[in-house]
Specification:
Helix 4 (about 70-80) runs parallel beside helix 5. Strand 2 (about 25-30), helix 2 and strand 3 (about 45) form a beta-alpha-beta unit. A 6-stranded parallel β-sheet has the order 3-2-1-4-5-6, sandwiched between helices. The relative contact order is 0.10. The protein is globular. It contains 13 helices and 9 strands. By secondary structure, the protein is an alpha/beta fold.
Length: about 290
Amino acid sequence: MRIGFIGLGLMGEPMCYNIIKKHDDAVYVFDIDEEKTALLERSGGIGCQNARETALNSDVIITVVPRSEHSLSVYSEIEPVMDETKICIDMSTIDPEASEKIYHMLKAHGTPFLDAPIVKSRDAAWLGDVGIYVGGDFEVYKQIKPVLQYMGRSIMHMGEHGKGLMMKICHNALVAQIQNGVNETLALALKEGIDIDKFSAAISYGGGQNSYYDSKQMALRYKDYTTQFSVSNMAKDLEICHNLVSQMHVHMPGLEVAREVYHEAMAAGDGGKDFCSTIEIVIRNQEKN
């Protein structure tokens, strides 16, 4: 089984690296940044000049790109070489409408398509330990699950096409709201003279302990905003969720509070920083009041 991997960015690079090291057949790689393609070539991948060449040579095509327009562009490019012998897996987090367009585009060629967005951080991706939510035909899922297991140990089939993507959107909306709760309460504690070490210890004594803070307390303590998951990506995911709930006429006030923080962070030029850096926005807003 030849695998093609398109999109070698923050998460795609370590995910593809794990496939190259664990798979016993060819892995074709492509990114619009030639240096990223070359980097994975040095790790054992076979570099391609474009997405179409990658797909043409592959039995399973995996895409991990930043936004809906990028996924649509990639699948429009590779559509002419699609047929019933290939399987496509989009592991990007994109607008469900865009994913639906891709699904029908490929269905016309008899090509199975799974949405399989990922959760966890870049560090987890290097360890081959991302979480993966899969939507699509269950028999196709069973067929390609060993490939997904190169990249992650926590893999769940959520249901028909689109359900993996919906779960990822719910997950990130929840994380952003947990994060904003941490930001607000930590900022309040700091303002009242409780240092971050005492705050961390005290939180661990009760029901406020949570995995987000457990994973980020050292980064917050030292203001280390090295990107594991960017402000820009979380802001994008919250916009997807906002648009969905608007269409569904669902009321999610906590989502809107978190979304406003991300609007401010993007306006401040913080899009490239890790998403835990949004505590600076919350502290700044508290100081204004």
